[in-house]
Amino acid sequence: MKKIVIAPDSFKESLTALEVAEAIKNGFQAVFPDAEYCLVPMADGGEGTVEALVAVTDGKTVHTQVTGPAGNQVEAHYGLLGDGKTAVIEMASASGLHHVAQDDRDPCLATSRGTGELIRHALDAGVRHIIVGLGGSATNDAGMGMLASLGVKLTDAQGNAISDGGAALINLQNIDVTELHPAMAECTFEVACDVDNPLLGERGATAIFGPQKGADKQALASLEKALTHLADVLVANGFSDQRNTSGAGAAGGMGFGMMTFMKASFRPGIEIVVEATNLKDIVKGADLVITGEGRLDSQTIFGKTPIGVAKTAKLYNIPVIGIAGSLSADVAVVCDHGIDAVFSIMPRVMTLKEAFADAEVNVTFTAKNIATVMAIQAK
């Protein structure tokens, strides 16, 4: 083995992507000490994307206080990549469900203002390329809170600013963009999004994602009516009608807001991360690529990190090994999508708590065993 590329996702609740990569390297290095190891922490646009891209580009994480989904101040962050001109924002950092206690969740009132404040902070720092990962949001306001933070005025029939939250959009009558942050016109927005839901209807933002954010039957009806009204008002004010566009329903309709006001391009998260990490060039000439995530199963083939890494490796016919915390009964399907062999790190039956605590040791041990078998075969 001369060159080994290690490009895993995080093992949720136990190891970051970088920690997984380092543990795999430690295992392989015990058997192949002279190999060149290229560690590329990965993500697919969701949790861990900022950390992965900051690590691989020698960037930095910027921390700041923003408005949380419940209106209180929360600690949030975004990544400033090594080029100094690109920012990566996970919507959940500012507007995520984890900021609101289970019993207090109410998408009728939750606001995406904090995400807009992160974007404003990045724009003020000179950033002109922003990647936004959608997912994990507590909101259902179609990104209108975000846009209000960036200078869009949303007013009722009397000219008063409407309240925050998805339900308040029923009162919207006028949209004024004359005070939109001036750098918005110079900024390119990319959205990491793996869902194709429209804004409205039985597959829309409210019907599909509202219940997990705390919406009951009455709230769902109010939110659907409010988002329908929003789409109608925007059309009446000369904006394009994006309500049926694929991805408009992502993150409580944040996709809709970004399409309409930011001309954002939407791509699968793993594609954006593969490009940002320059993975295609890194894997060129490798003898082996190792990837993985907390669980490998049939859902892995739908835009998840391991398949994105495998497809990149297969451009050069490089063998790919997948390492995971657990494997499902239907995991064999991943072998039809570029992963040549899969391994679970679990050495015995154990509790979830034990699995999380021992993850690093188990990853290293598994990697060493795989490397040992490969060394034996090479003799």
UniProtKB/TrEMBL annotation:
GO terms for molecular function: kinase activity. InterPro entries: Glyc_kinase_flavodox-like_fold, Glycerate_kinase, Glycerate_kinase_RE-like, Glycerate_kinase_sf. Keywords: Kinase, Transferase. SUPFAM superfamilies: Glycerate kinase I. It comes from the Bacteria. Pfam families: Gly_kinase. It comes from Oceanisphaera ostreae. This is Glycerate kinase. Belongs to the glycerate kinase type-1 family.
